[in-house]
Amino acid sequence: MAVAQTKEAEPVVPRPPAVELASQLPGAEFNKDEEFHALRQMLLIRRFEEKAGQMYGMGLIGGFCHLYIGQEAVVIGMQMAKRDGDQMITGYRDHGHMLACGMDPKGVMAELTGRRGGYSKGKGGSMHMFSREKNFYGGHGIVGAPVPIGTGLAFANKYRGNDAVCLTYFGDGAANQGQVYESFNMAELWKLPVVYIIENNRYAMGTSVTRSSAQADFSKRGVSFNIPGVQVDGMDVRAVRAAGAEAIAWCRSGKGPIIIEMLTYRYRGHSMSDPAKYRTKEEVDKVRTEHDPIEQVRARLLAKNWASEDELKKIDAAVRAVVNEASEFATTDPEPDPSELYTDVYR
Ligand SMILES: Cc1ncc(C[n+]2csc(CCOP(=O)(O)OP(=O)(O)O)c2C)c(N)n1
Ligand SMILES: [Mg+2]
Protein backbone atom coordinates (compact mmCIF):
# COMPACT_ATOMS: atom_id res chain seq x y z
CA MET A 1 0.00 0.00 0.00
CA ALA A 2 1.42 3.36 -0.97
CA VAL A 3 1.30 5.71 1.99
CA ALA A 4 3.50 8.60 0.92
CA GLN A 5 1.58 9.95 -2.05
CA THR A 6 2.30 13.49 -3.05
CA LYS A 7 -0.79 15.64 -2.71
CA GLU A 8 -1.69 18.29 -5.26
CA ALA A 9 0.46 21.39 -4.87
CA GLU A 10 -1.31 24.08 -2.87
CA PRO A 11 -1.44 27.71 -3.98
CA VAL A 12 1.58 29.77 -3.00
CA VAL A 13 1.11 31.29 0.45
CA PRO A 14 -2.19 29.54 1.10
CA ARG A 15 -4.83 31.41 3.07
CA PRO A 16 -7.63 29.17 4.31
CA PRO A 17 -10.80 31.29 4.34
CA ALA A 18 -11.83 30.08 7.80
CA VAL A 19 -8.94 31.87 9.42
CA GLU A 20 -9.03 35.53 10.25
CA LEU A 21 -5.85 37.12 9.01
CA ALA A 22 -4.24 39.65 11.26
CA SER A 23 -3.79 42.17 8.44
CA GLN A 24 -7.54 42.62 8.50
CA LEU A 25 -7.50 43.59 12.15
CA PRO A 26 -7.75 47.25 13.07
CA GLY A 27 -4.39 48.79 13.89
CA ALA A 28 -2.49 46.86 11.23
CA GLU A 29 -1.57 50.00 9.27
CA PHE A 30 1.86 51.57 9.79
CA ASN A 31 2.62 55.24 10.14
CA LYS A 32 5.45 56.79 8.15
CA ASP A 33 8.16 56.17 10.76
CA GLU A 34 7.11 52.57 11.16
CA GLU A 35 7.22 51.98 7.39
CA PHE A 36 10.74 53.41 7.18
CA HIS A 37 11.87 51.43 10.20
CA ALA A 38 10.50 48.18 8.78
CA LEU A 39 12.10 48.90 5.41
CA ARG A 40 15.57 49.58 6.86
CA GLN A 41 15.46 46.55 9.14
CA MET A 42 14.25 44.14 6.47
CA LEU A 43 16.75 45.52 3.97
CA LEU A 44 19.55 45.00 6.47
CA ILE A 45 18.66 41.32 6.68
CA ARG A 46 18.21 40.98 2.90
CA ARG A 47 21.54 42.65 2.02
CA PHE A 48 23.39 40.85 4.82
CA GLU A 49 22.13 37.48 3.64
CA GLU A 50 22.93 38.24 0.00
CA LYS A 51 26.46 39.13 1.03
CA ALA A 52 26.76 36.00 3.16
CA GLY A 53 25.66 33.95 0.15
CA GLN A 54 28.34 35.59 -2.01
CA MET A 55 31.01 35.07 0.62
CA TYR A 56 30.00 31.44 0.98
CA GLY A 57 30.40 31.05 -2.78
CA MET A 58 33.89 32.54 -2.54
CA GLY A 59 34.86 30.00 0.10
CA LEU A 60 35.09 32.60 2.87
CA ILE A 61 32.34 30.94 4.92
CA GLY A 62 32.49 27.24 5.68
CA GLY A 63 30.08 24.69 7.09
CA PHE A 64 26.35 25.16 6.94
CA CYS A 65 24.74 28.46 6.06
CA HIS A 66 20.94 28.82 5.96
CA LEU A 67 19.71 32.09 4.51
CA TYR A 68 16.55 33.90 5.66
CA ILE A 69 15.86 35.76 2.39
CA GLY A 70 12.09 36.05 1.82
CA GLN A 71 11.13 35.62 5.47
CA GLU A 72 12.29 39.05 6.73
CA ALA A 73 8.82 40.39 7.61
CA VAL A 74 8.32 37.67 10.22
CA VAL A 75 11.14 38.56 12.54
CA ILE A 76 10.94 42.31 11.95
CA GLY A 77 7.19 42.46 12.57
CA MET A 78 7.59 40.48 15.78
CA GLN A 79 10.52 42.65 16.83
CA MET A 80 8.30 45.71 16.39
CA ALA A 81 5.69 44.09 18.66
CA LYS A 82 7.95 42.96 21.51
CA ARG A 83 9.53 45.07 24.19
CA ASP A 84 12.90 45.15 25.92
CA GLY A 85 13.38 42.18 28.17
CA ASP A 86 11.37 39.76 26.03
CA GLN A 87 13.53 36.88 24.87
CA MET A 88 13.98 35.32 21.46
CA ILE A 89 15.17 31.86 20.46
CA THR A 90 15.28 30.16 17.06
CA GLY A 91 16.90 27.39 15.01
CA TYR A 92 19.70 27.52 12.46
CA ARG A 93 18.09 30.01 10.02
CA ASP A 94 19.09 32.64 12.48
CA HIS A 95 21.06 35.56 11.02
CA GLY A 96 17.92 37.63 10.54
CA HIS A 97 16.85 37.13 14.13
CA MET A 98 20.24 38.29 15.38
CA LEU A 99 20.22 41.43 13.26
CA ALA A 100 16.61 42.13 14.23
CA CYS A 101 17.42 42.14 17.92
CA GLY A 102 20.26 44.58 17.40
CA MET A 103 23.30 42.33 17.36
CA ASP A 104 26.23 43.89 15.53
CA PRO A 105 26.38 42.83 11.84
CA LYS A 106 30.19 42.81 12.11
CA GLY A 107 30.13 40.29 14.94
CA VAL A 108 27.60 38.09 13.14
CA MET A 109 29.50 38.16 9.82
CA ALA A 110 32.83 37.55 11.57
CA GLU A 111 31.33 34.48 13.22
CA LEU A 112 30.29 33.19 9.81
CA THR A 113 33.87 33.54 8.60
CA GLY A 114 35.28 32.04 11.81
CA ARG A 115 37.14 35.10 13.09
CA ARG A 116 38.07 36.28 16.57
CA GLY A 117 35.61 39.16 16.55
CA GLY A 118 32.68 36.82 15.93
CA TYR A 119 29.96 36.39 18.56
CA SER A 120 31.32 32.96 19.51
CA LYS A 121 34.95 34.02 18.99
CA GLY A 122 34.92 32.35 15.60
CA LYS A 123 34.32 28.92 17.06
CA GLY A 124 30.57 28.52 16.59
CA GLY A 125 29.68 29.56 13.07
CA SER A 126 26.32 30.29 11.51
CA MET A 127 24.16 28.14 13.81
CA HIS A 128 25.79 28.91 17.14
CA MET A 129 25.58 32.51 18.25
CA PHE A 130 24.08 34.00 21.39
CA SER A 131 23.70 37.38 23.02
CA ARG A 132 22.61 37.57 26.64
CA GLU A 133 22.74 41.35 26.30
CA LYS A 134 20.13 41.32 23.52
CA ASN A 135 18.15 38.44 25.06
CA PHE A 136 18.92 36.25 22.06
CA TYR A 137 19.25 32.63 23.14
CA GLY A 138 20.46 31.10 19.86
CA GLY A 139 21.04 29.81 17.22
CA HIS A 140 20.37 25.98 17.42
CA GLY A 141 21.36 23.37 14.85
CA ILE A 142 19.04 20.72 16.22
CA VAL A 143 15.62 20.90 14.61
CA GLY A 144 12.93 21.52 17.25
CA ALA A 145 15.43 22.20 20.05
CA PRO A 146 14.41 25.85 20.51
CA VAL A 147 10.90 24.74 21.52
CA PRO A 148 11.64 23.11 24.91
CA ILE A 149 14.38 25.65 25.59
CA GLY A 150 12.09 28.57 24.79
CA THR A 151 9.43 26.99 26.97
CA GLY A 152 12.02 26.78 29.75
CA LEU A 153 12.86 30.45 29.33
CA ALA A 154 9.16 31.22 29.70
CA PHE A 155 9.04 29.01 32.79
CA ALA A 156 11.92 31.04 34.25
CA ASN A 157 10.02 34.26 33.56
CA LYS A 158 7.00 32.97 35.44
CA TYR A 159 9.13 31.57 38.29
CA ARG A 160 10.98 34.85 38.68
CA GLY A 161 7.79 36.85 38.49
CA ASN A 162 9.02 39.16 35.76
CA ASP A 163 6.59 39.90 32.95
CA ALA A 164 8.86 38.97 30.04
CA VAL A 165 7.58 36.86 27.15
CA CYS A 166 9.68 34.38 25.20
CA LEU A 167 9.32 34.42 21.42
CA THR A 168 10.08 30.87 20.30
CA TYR A 169 10.58 30.40 16.57
CA PHE A 170 10.60 27.10 14.69
CA GLY A 171 9.79 25.74 11.26
CA ASP A 172 6.97 23.75 9.69
CA GLY A 173 9.21 20.68 9.67
CA ALA A 174 10.14 21.08 13.32
CA ALA A 175 6.44 21.36 14.15
CA ASN A 176 6.05 17.62 13.51
CA GLN A 177 8.42 16.69 16.35
CA GLY A 178 7.40 15.09 19.63
CA GLN A 179 9.33 17.50 21.84
CA VAL A 180 7.15 20.31 20.50
CA TYR A 181 4.01 18.72 21.92
CA GLU A 182 5.56 17.87 25.27
CA SER A 183 6.46 21.55 25.48
CA PHE A 184 2.95 22.63 24.46
CA ASN A 185 1.47 20.52 27.23
CA MET A 186 3.66 22.01 29.95
CA ALA A 187 3.30 25.55 28.61
CA GLU A 188 -0.50 25.46 28.75
CA LEU A 189 -0.64 23.51 32.00
CA TRP A 190 1.51 26.12 33.72
CA LYS A 191 0.25 29.08 31.67
CA LEU A 192 3.75 30.03 30.56
CA PRO A 193 4.38 33.29 28.69
CA VAL A 194 5.58 31.90 25.37
CA VAL A 195 4.60 32.82 21.83
CA TYR A 196 5.25 29.87 19.54
CA ILE A 197 6.02 31.30 16.11
CA ILE A 198 5.86 28.66 13.43
CA GLU A 199 7.62 29.97 10.33
CA ASN A 200 5.80 27.97 7.68
CA ASN A 201 8.01 28.55 4.65
CA ARG A 202 6.34 25.54 2.99
CA TYR A 203 9.40 23.29 2.96
CA ALA A 204 11.53 21.31 5.39
CA MET A 205 14.72 20.79 3.44
CA GLY A 206 13.34 19.33 0.17
CA THR A 207 9.99 18.14 1.55
CA SER A 208 6.93 20.29 1.06
CA VAL A 209 4.41 20.75 3.86
CA THR A 210 1.76 18.97 1.81
CA ARG A 211 3.90 15.82 1.61
CA SER A 212 4.90 15.75 5.27
CA SER A 213 2.13 17.14 7.42
CA ALA A 214 -1.21 15.49 8.19
CA GLN A 215 -2.48 18.81 9.58
CA ALA A 216 -0.94 21.51 7.42
CA ASP A 217 -2.75 24.33 9.20
CA PHE A 218 -0.16 24.82 11.91
CA SER A 219 -2.23 27.38 13.79
CA LYS A 220 -4.37 24.40 14.88
CA ARG A 221 -1.49 22.39 16.26
CA GLY A 222 -2.25 23.49 19.83
CA VAL A 223 -5.89 22.39 19.78
CA SER A 224 -5.30 19.25 21.90
CA PHE A 225 -3.69 21.42 24.55
CA ASN A 226 -6.20 24.30 24.44
CA ILE A 227 -3.54 26.61 23.05
CA PRO A 228 -5.09 29.16 20.69
CA GLY A 229 -3.52 29.81 17.32
CA VAL A 230 -3.78 32.31 14.52
CA GLN A 231 -2.59 32.15 10.93
CA VAL A 232 -0.94 35.29 9.63
CA ASP A 233 0.32 36.57 6.28
CA GLY A 234 4.00 36.44 7.18
CA MET A 235 4.95 38.37 4.05
CA ASP A 236 3.16 41.49 5.33
CA VAL A 237 5.14 43.09 8.13
CA ARG A 238 2.06 45.02 9.31
CA ALA A 239 0.04 41.85 9.73
CA VAL A 240 2.89 40.26 11.66
CA ARG A 241 3.27 43.24 13.98
CA ALA A 242 -0.49 43.37 14.65
CA ALA A 243 -0.76 39.65 15.39
CA GLY A 244 2.46 39.72 17.39
CA ALA A 245 1.23 42.57 19.58
CA GLU A 246 -1.99 40.70 20.36
CA ALA A 247 -0.19 37.45 21.06
CA ILE A 248 2.41 39.06 23.31
CA ALA A 249 -0.30 40.93 25.24
CA TRP A 250 -2.14 37.62 25.67
CA CYS A 251 0.95 36.02 27.20
CA ARG A 252 1.89 39.01 29.33
CA SER A 253 -1.54 39.12 30.89
CA GLY A 254 -1.04 35.59 32.23
CA LYS A 255 -3.27 33.69 29.80
CA GLY A 256 -0.55 31.23 28.83
CA PRO A 257 0.99 30.28 25.49
CA ILE A 258 -0.27 31.12 22.01
CA ILE A 259 0.69 29.98 18.50
CA ILE A 260 1.19 32.18 15.46
CA GLU A 261 1.60 30.41 12.17
CA MET A 262 3.44 32.71 9.81
CA LEU A 263 2.71 31.93 6.15
CA THR A 264 6.02 32.76 4.58
CA TYR A 265 8.46 31.53 1.95
CA ARG A 266 12.19 31.10 1.56
CA TYR A 267 13.59 32.20 -1.78
CA ARG A 268 16.89 30.34 -1.56
CA GLY A 269 17.51 26.65 -1.05
CA HIS A 270 17.40 25.09 2.40
CA SER A 271 21.11 25.79 2.84
CA MET A 272 23.86 26.95 0.52
CA SER A 273 24.38 23.38 -0.71
CA ASP A 274 20.76 22.93 -1.85
CA PRO A 275 19.99 23.52 -5.55
CA ALA A 276 16.23 23.45 -4.68
CA LYS A 277 15.18 21.14 -7.49
CA TYR A 278 12.02 20.09 -5.66
CA ARG A 279 10.13 23.25 -6.70
CA THR A 280 9.78 25.24 -9.88
CA LYS A 281 11.41 28.55 -10.68
CA GLU A 282 7.91 29.86 -11.46
CA GLU A 283 6.77 29.10 -7.93
CA VAL A 284 9.62 31.15 -6.45
CA ASP A 285 9.18 33.96 -8.98
CA LYS A 286 5.48 34.21 -8.22
CA VAL A 287 6.10 34.85 -4.52
CA ARG A 288 8.94 37.25 -5.26
CA THR A 289 6.90 39.36 -7.62
CA GLU A 290 3.55 39.22 -5.82
CA HIS A 291 4.37 38.95 -2.12
CA ASP A 292 7.89 40.22 -1.46
CA PRO A 293 7.85 41.79 2.02
CA ILE A 294 10.32 44.56 1.18
CA GLU A 295 8.70 45.47 -2.13
CA GLN A 296 5.36 45.80 -0.33
CA VAL A 297 6.77 48.48 1.98
CA ARG A 298 8.57 50.26 -0.87
CA ALA A 299 5.36 50.32 -2.90
CA ARG A 300 3.35 51.78 0.00
CA LEU A 301 5.96 54.46 0.68
CA LEU A 302 5.89 55.52 -2.97
CA ALA A 303 2.11 55.34 -3.30
CA LYS A 304 1.60 57.52 -0.24
CA ASN A 305 4.26 59.96 -1.43
CA TRP A 306 6.17 59.37 1.78
CA ALA A 307 9.37 58.70 -0.18
CA SER A 308 10.79 59.19 -3.66
CA GLU A 309 12.69 56.53 -5.64
CA ASP A 310 15.82 58.56 -4.93
CA GLU A 311 15.34 58.46 -1.16
CA LEU A 312 14.70 54.73 -1.29
CA LYS A 313 17.92 54.23 -3.26
CA LYS A 314 19.80 56.20 -0.61
CA ILE A 315 18.41 54.01 2.15
CA ASP A 316 19.50 50.91 0.25
CA ALA A 317 22.97 52.39 -0.26
CA ALA A 318 23.30 53.18 3.45
CA VAL A 319 22.31 49.60 4.35
CA ARG A 320 24.76 48.19 1.80
CA ALA A 321 27.52 50.30 3.38
CA VAL A 322 26.82 48.75 6.80
CA VAL A 323 26.93 45.27 5.29
CA ASN A 324 30.12 46.00 3.34
CA GLU A 325 31.75 47.21 6.53
CA ALA A 326 30.71 43.97 8.23
CA SER A 327 32.15 41.84 5.43
CA GLU A 328 35.36 43.89 5.42
CA PHE A 329 35.75 43.26 9.15
CA ALA A 330 34.88 39.58 8.72
CA THR A 331 37.62 39.09 6.15
CA THR A 332 40.39 41.06 7.86
CA ASP A 333 39.87 40.15 11.51
CA PRO A 334 42.31 37.35 12.47
CA GLU A 335 41.26 33.76 13.01
CA PRO A 336 41.25 32.51 16.61
CA ASP A 337 44.56 31.43 18.09
CA PRO A 338 44.96 27.62 18.03
CA SER A 339 45.10 27.66 21.86
CA GLU A 340 41.43 28.69 21.77
CA LEU A 341 40.61 25.12 20.76
CA TYR A 342 40.69 24.20 24.43
CA THR A 343 38.72 27.12 25.86
CA ASP A 344 34.92 27.40 26.27
CA VAL A 345 34.49 23.61 26.12
CA TYR A 346 33.28 21.18 28.77
CA ARG A 347 35.79 18.48 29.62
C1 LIG B 1 16.89 16.59 15.18
C2 LIG B 1 17.28 16.91 13.77
N1 LIG B 1 16.80 16.16 12.75
C3 LIG B 1 17.14 16.44 11.48
C4 LIG B 1 17.99 17.48 11.21
C5 LIG B 1 18.33 17.82 9.77
N2 LIG B 1 17.56 18.97 9.33
C6 LIG B 1 18.09 20.20 9.34
S1 LIG B 1 17.01 21.35 8.87
C7 LIG B 1 15.79 20.25 8.61
C8 LIG B 1 14.44 20.71 8.10
C9 LIG B 1 13.68 21.58 9.04
O1 LIG B 1 12.69 22.31 8.35
P1 LIG B 1 11.81 23.42 9.00
O2 LIG B 1 11.54 23.11 10.42
O3 LIG B 1 10.64 23.61 8.13
O4 LIG B 1 12.72 24.73 8.98
P2 LIG B 1 13.30 25.57 7.75
O5 LIG B 1 14.61 24.94 7.36
O6 LIG B 1 12.30 25.49 6.66
O7 LIG B 1 13.51 26.94 8.25
C10 LIG B 1 16.25 18.97 8.89
C11 LIG B 1 15.43 17.76 8.76
C12 LIG B 1 18.46 18.25 12.29
N3 LIG B 1 19.28 19.30 12.10
N4 LIG B 1 18.08 17.97 13.55
MG1 LIG C 1 10.27 25.06 6.69
What report would you give on this structure?
With 347 residues, the chain is an alpha/beta fold. Helices cover 41% and strands 9% of the residues. It has eleven helices and seven strands. It has helices at residues 32-57, 72-81, 95-100, 105-112, 146-160, 178-189, 209-212, 237-252, 281-291, 293-303, 309-332, and strands spanning 87-89, 166-171, 194-200, 203-204, 207-208, 229-233, 258-263. Strands 1-2-3-7-6 form a five-stranded parallel sheet, with helices on both faces. The chain has a two-stranded antiparallel sheet with strand order 4-5. α6 links the parallel β2 and β3 (194-200). It is globular, with a radius of gyration of 20 Å. The model is unreliable at 1-20 (pLDDT under 50). The structure holds thiamine diphosphate and magnesium ion. Residues 171-173, 201, 203-204 line the site of magnesium ion (MG).
Quick recap of the structure?
The chain contains 11 helices and 7 strands.
Percent helix range: 40-55%
> For the CA atoms, what is the radius of gyration?
20 Å
Output the strand order for the largest sheet: 1-2-3-7-6
Low-pLDDT sequence parts: 1-20
List the ions, cofactors and other small molecules found in this model: thiamine diphosphate, magnesium ion
Query: How many helices does DSSP assign?
Result: 11
Please state the overall shape, judged from the principal axes of the Cα atoms.
globular
The major beta sheet can be summarized as:
5 strands, parallel
Instruction: Work out the strand percent.
Output: 5-15%
Number of strands: 7
Order of helices and strands: HHEHHHEHEEEHEHEHHH
- From the N-terminal CA to the C-terminal CA, the straight-line distance is 50 Å
